[in-house]
Each structure stands twice: as structure tokens, then as C-alpha cells.
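Aim 2 progress update. The chain analyzed this quarter is reproduced below.
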Amino acid sequence: MGRTNTFGAGNQDVFLVKTNRYGTVQWAKTYGRTDNEHASSVQQTSDGGYILSGEMFFSSGSDYSNAFLIKVDAYGDLQWAKSYGGTWAEGFALVRQTSDGGYIAVGWTWSPELSAGNNDFFVIKTDAFGNV
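Predicted C-alpha cells:
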């Protein structure tokens, strides 16, 4: 898991590679738009798929971003993608599946409508489909 600008939708995209226990690539996928997306965390989910978190920028070269969650199935096929945040900048550093099948994500925010100052913690709890 990480990012690539070699291939994908454009600029930097999330890059996820699934290997077997010997390191042989089973599949490799990119996720993103024409702007920059950076993944910071991945976890296998109870259904055999994966949940990814990170930040997506509003436009190339921008300092403004939203946090995101991406859910893929066991083959890396996109099931859903959601962004979260305010008017300035947010990003998720970590996501984990919860016992109810939803997700909890933690990161940071600079958006004045979501924080008490600069660079506050940003935590959300979602259902299994990424709804807050």
C-alpha cells in the first residue's frame, strides 16, 4: 500500500498490491482521481476485503485536502469510496474495522469548522458503508 505516479488516473494515486505468502503478486490496483491521493493505512476486513485511509487533495499542488476511506473486496475491486472533512485540510492516519462491522478512523484537521485551532485530532466512526 502506498502511492504511485507511474500509472493510474493521474498525478499520485493510491497503490495497493496483494501478494501471497511467498511475495508473488496476486493483483495490483490503483485508486484515485486526476488529483493527488495518499494512502496511510490498510487493514483486511472481516469479509476478506480491505479498508484504506488517507488524504485526497482538492487539486494538484493544493495544500487543501479531505480525509478518505476506500473499501475494496478481496480482489481489490472498489466497493465504495468516501471523503470527509471541512474547508481546509484533513487526513486519516489509521483506520480499523469495529466489532459492529463499521470503521473508526483517526487523523488530523485544520478546518476551522471542525477544530478548535491548528492541527487538531479528527476521529470518525462509520457504519459498514462509510456513513458517519
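DSSP finds no helices and ten strands in the chain. Residues 2-126 form one domain. These observations will guide the mutagenesis experiments scheduled for the next reporting period.
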